[in-house]
Amino acid sequence: MTDTLLRIQGLQVRYPGSEADVLRGVDLRVAPREFVAVIGGSGSGKSTLLRAINRLVEPRAGSVALRDIEVTALKRRALRQCRRRMGMIFQEFNLIERYRVLDNVLLGRVGSYSTLRSFFSLYGSAMIDEAARLLDRVGLGDFLDQRVDSLSGGQRQRVGICRAVFQQPELLLVDEPTSSLDPRIAVDIMQLIRDLAEEQGVAALCNIHDVELARRFASRIIALRDGVVVHDGTAETLDAATLDRIYAVADRSVL
Questions:
Q1: Which of 36, 4, 1, 11 is nearest to 219 (CA)?
Q2: Which domains does the chain have, with CATH numbers?
Q3: E strand map for 128-209
Q4: Taking 50 as the threshold, does the pLDDT of residue 253 lie above it?
Q5: Rounded Cα–Cα distance for residues 72 and 63 (Å)
Q6: Sheet containing 35-39: which strands, arranged edge to edge?
Q7: Distance CA 136, CA 139 (A)
Q8: What is the pTM of this model?
Q9: What is the mean pLDDT of the chain?
């Protein structure tokens, strides 16, 4: 990979009170504009990997670098600044339910402004217009002033996607964005994430439980098992034998 956006080397994570690592020496590189899916069974370390990248979970060993910045070496202020370059889309949306749709999206850039300005929501008209256009792009142009708690699950996920993209990141970290959605909406959400990533020129690392969605939308698929990478390739290389090795089941209909 000639141009690397994200570089992970020897990453190990162990949760307090545990005697075993959740991640056991993960090595991974992601190129600019690449859309990478991360698959694996429950407990394989998928969500931990994403959270370790932006240090929502602290690694016990190894390194994470975003271009020339060693994320694992950063202190508080520098880490906050680096996190602005990594937008995150959460499984459970992670929105402020009592806020309007537009306000939730504007919060995507809250880290770029002073605490006082953010507290009083002193966003300029150009920024508000930009957020409104993005919401219109995802089909929520008529919902700007609605409270988030009045929306469906699919609509909430669209707000979360807009907030992450509005942050203007270099990398999207996407954690199980479709697990709480019905299959038809799940396809729409994955299509939207991929399309917006392409339009914005942003790389994406997407943790997803649905193998077929990974095959359909990712340019590359990484598989974890027991905290280590056991597969790294295109959708075409994800054959039956490889799936058996990843999930260690005889009946792949459970996938």
A1: 36
A2: 1-85+169-255 (3.40.50.300), 94-168 (no CATH)
A3: 171-175, 203-207
A4: no
A5: 6
A6: 86-89, 171-175, 203-207, 35-39, 220-225, 228-233
A7: 5
A8: 0.91
A9: 91
